[in-house]
TrEMBL record:
GO BP: carbohydrate metabolic process; glycerol-3-phosphate biosynthetic process; glycerol-3-phosphate catabolic process; glycerophospholipid biosynthetic process
Record keywords: Cytoplasm, Lipid biosynthesis, Lipid metabolism, NAD, NADP, Nucleotide-binding, Oxidoreductase, Phospholipid biosynthesis, Phospholipid metabolism
UniProt binding sites for substrate: 109, 256-257
Glycerol-3-phosphate dehydrogenase NAD-dependent N-terminal domain location: 8-160
Lineage of origin: Bacteria, Pseudomonadati, Pseudomonadota, Gammaproteobacteria, Pseudomonadales
Protein name, UniProt field: Glycerol-3-phosphate dehydrogenase [NAD(P)+]
Chain residues that bind NADPH: 15-16, 36, 53, 109, 141, 256, 280, 282
Chain residues that bind sn-glycerol 3-phosphate: 109, 137, 192, 245, 255-257
Catalytic activity from the UniProt record: sn-glycerol 3-phosphate + NADP(+) = dihydroxyacetone phosphate + NADPH + H(+); sn-glycerol 3-phosphate + NAD(+) = dihydroxyacetone phosphate + NADH + H(+)
Residues annotated as catalytic: 192
Assigned EC number: 1.1.1.94
Length: 349
């Protein structure tokens, strides 16, 4: 780590943007958090707390909180984007050339439709001169904000940018690993939200521990099958941004996607489940987008099809479970052919 830290701005004053900004500021990185709501911003400046999205966590005295985008961006060398996927492109479009040349790191775990675009692909379209990376891993905001130990992945083909992100974010509570599979890392973060909804629903129904384990493992098989079809490296899904994030989101009641699934499993409607949450659960939109894409691409995704049938096609849960359990029994692990065709590098040996 270097002593001199580059100035960083975080866009988005929700739970994750606030968590990241606070962590950066505690790492002695000159940090500005931009959010759109002035009332919330002035409350955060005065009370040193984000009572709406991160209650109970004290903000670092050095963290600057502003709603003025121009001043937030003028000095920043790195910009972390923590805006929900539904608003991601419009926020970039509002900023325009103010982002050119900066290192832009998306932390948003969603997919844009039409186009089936990852957030970093939107960044490339809207800010062609930017340096692009994504950050993803088992990173529940509330736990990170409280200093619980975890790790994450920065993925980019720009190795210097990955090193900068490791430098500003890495600390005693967070390890930052690098990857060059940006697409796979980003896909992992988006896809696991769908399976977290299923896991929350299963927990609400009181299923056994074997069932929970089967669900997570088959979810990993299904998301990896899809990702490989789309061009990602299956090995990425054995890492923190794959199985790591899948486990935490499918097992923790802190996950908002899990909470939506749990509410659905208790009999609430989708609208009621989302309204009760009051925060973003990206998996609901990702489910729609993914179901359509898997049909277009002809990728077998029985869990996605089953959840879609329950939520959006009003099919009875018992019928869906019956179909899942009586489907053809295929392979456990599918990627032996890929592994055989990919010899180990010198470093891996
Ligand atoms: N909360 C978490 O534990 C983690 C969240 N993420 C991802 O971070 C992204 C952001 O999520 P959270 O911060 O958790 O959401 P949140 O629900 O806690 O907050 C959303 C924030 O986005 C703001 N926002 C919405 N539309 C906006 C717009 N048009 N312009 C400016 N701001 C806007 C809201 O005002 C709010 O401050 C999501 O894609 C999520 O998947 C990633 C890792 C962990
Ligand atoms: O991505 C997350 C943890 O890594 C947060 O998941 P939720 O959006 O379901 O809370």
């Amino acid at each position: 780590m270097t002593d001199h830290k580059v100035p960083v701005t975080v866009l988005g004053g929700g739970s994750f943007g606030t968590t990241l900004a606070n962590l950066l500021a505690s790492n002695s990185v000159p940090t500005t958090l931009w959010l759109r709501n002035e009332e919330q911003a002035s409350e955060m400046r005065e009370q040193r707390e984000n009572t709406r999205y991160l209650p109970g966590i004290k903000l670092d005295p050095q963290l600057t909180v502003t709603t003025d985008m121009a001043s937030a961006l003028s000095a920043a060398e790195l910009v972390f984007l923590a805006i929900p996927s539904g608003a991601f492109r419009s926020v970039l479009q509002q900023i325009g050339p103010g982002l050119a040349g900066k290192g832009l790191i998306s932390t948003t775990k969603g997919i844009e439709q039409p186009g089936f675009l990852m957030m970093s692909q939107i960044v490339e379209q809207e800010v062609p001169e930017a340096r692009v990376a994504v950050l993803s891993g088992p990173n529940l905001a509330r736990e990170m904000a409280a200093g619980a130990l975890t790790a994450t992945v920065v993925a980019s083909d720009d190795e210097a940018l990955s090193a900068q992100v490791q430098d500003v974010l890495g600390c005693q509570s967070l390890r930052v690993y690098a990857s060059q599979d940006r697409y796979g890392v980003e896909l992992g973060g988006a896809l696991k939200n769908v399976y977290a909804i299923i896991s929350g629903m299963a927990a609400a129904m009181g299923v056994g521990e074997n069932t929970k384990s089967m669900l997570i493992t088959r979810a990993l098989a299904e998301m990896t099958r899809f990702a490989v079809h789309m061009g990602a490296n299956p090995l990425t899904f054995l890492g923190l941004a794959g199985v790591g994030d899948l486990i935490v989101t499918c097992t923790s009641p802190m996950s908002r996607n899990y909470q939506v699934g749990h509410a659905l499993g208790k009999g609430l409607t989708l609208e009621e489940s989302i309204a009760r949450l009051g925060q973003v659960a990206e998996g609901v939109n990702t489910l729609k987008v993914l179901r359509q894409k898997s049909l277009e691409e002809g990728v077998y995704m029985p869990l996605v099809a089953g959840l879609h049938a329950i939520i959006f096609e009003q099919q009875p849960l018992a019928d869906v479970i019956g179909r899942l359990m009586s489907a053809e029994q295929k392979h456990d692990v599918e990627f032996s052919a890929f592994m055989a065709s990919t010899p180990l590098t010198k470093e891996q040996k």
